[in-house]
Amino acid sequence: MPTERTTTIMVYKFDELDDSAKEHVLDKWREHEDYGYISDCIQDDFKEYLTERGLPTDSLEWSVSWSQGPSPVSFNGTIDVEKFLRFHKRWAAYRMLWTFKPQAWIASNRDYHISVEASCVYDDMENWTAKHEAKVDELQEELQECVYEIAQDMYYNAQREIEYQVSDEVITETILTNEYEFDAEGN
Fold it and tell me: What integer best gives the mean pLDDT of the chain?
């Protein structure tokens, strides 16, 4: 016949643990925590960031691994050229293209290589000149450079956010806020 026993375990708040036990708690937390919420937050931040700049968000993909190809962020679609240039305070620089409705597209591949194509809608061919064509080329080059820089900024922002979320300070704050308890070894 089974014998009933009662076991008493001493439990401690995080700040009552010794340094070794605290380190054990932090290591275990990082090992077992599901960080999917960080990815969701970063994805939402990226979409807001891109939308503000007139860039597409529908096929947004990104990675923050330490070995990257040319760009760690990939997105495809139509650029809202006017919004993009106004955000970067460059709309006036392309005044000669306004009546020709400048358009641009981003195409990315699975290696995160980003290319930008720009053109204009010119129904009135007699007013279209080599200067306009040169200005479209300039626009395409500027968009390409800006989009690449934006992708790099997004990558570094994501890295910083992940490093912050897995820092001792954030994990400790979460543990203290939720009043988690541990045995003397930090289990």
Answer: 85
